[in-house]
Specification:
- The chain is mainly α and about 120 residues long.
- The protein has a single domain, classed as Glutathione S-transferase Yfyf (Class Pi), Chain A, domain 2 (Up-down Bundle), CATH 1.20.1050.10.
- Helices cover about 70% and strands about 0% of the residues.
């Protein structure tokens, strides 16, 4: 449990800030006809690289962030990562790291997550 809380804290304090900015700048701003801030993109890619390097080391020691079982610590990374890996140049930051790439492929291919993505992509009825 302590490890789950530790990685949730890492997500909220270290992963979420740069990933949220990149999500907005790379995925949402173009759709909203808002100019992208290249300086902000560069700065937050650099921050995300550092976080992903820490994650890659951790994921070399265990299958998931908080151990060998999927947990809320992994789940909390799915929303922002889905947009970043699915449709932006940030995909390479994830996939160029063996352990992060493996982890991403595994957590994003879970049936429950694929169902969430499918529901998000379905037109409202």
């Amino acid at each position: 449990k302590a490890s789950i809380e530790q990685w949730l804290e890492a997500e909220s304090q270290s992963f979420n800030p740069p990933s949220s900015i990149l999500l907005f700048q790379l995925a949402l701003a173009p759709r909203m006809n808002i100019p992208q801030d290249e300086g902000l993109i560069k700065q937050n890619k650099e921050k995300l690289v550092k976080v992903l390097d820490v994650y890659d080391r951790r994921l070399g020691e265990s299958r998931y962030l908080a151990g060998d079982e999927f947990s809320l610590a992994d789940l909390s990374h799915l929303p922002n990562s889905q947009y970043l890996v699915g449709g932006t140049e940030v995909k390479e930051l994830f996939m160029s790291r063996d352990n992060v790439g493996r982890w991403w492929e595994e957590i994003s291919s879970r049936e429950s997550w694929k169902k969430v993505v499918e529901m998000q992509n379905s037109p409202p009825s």
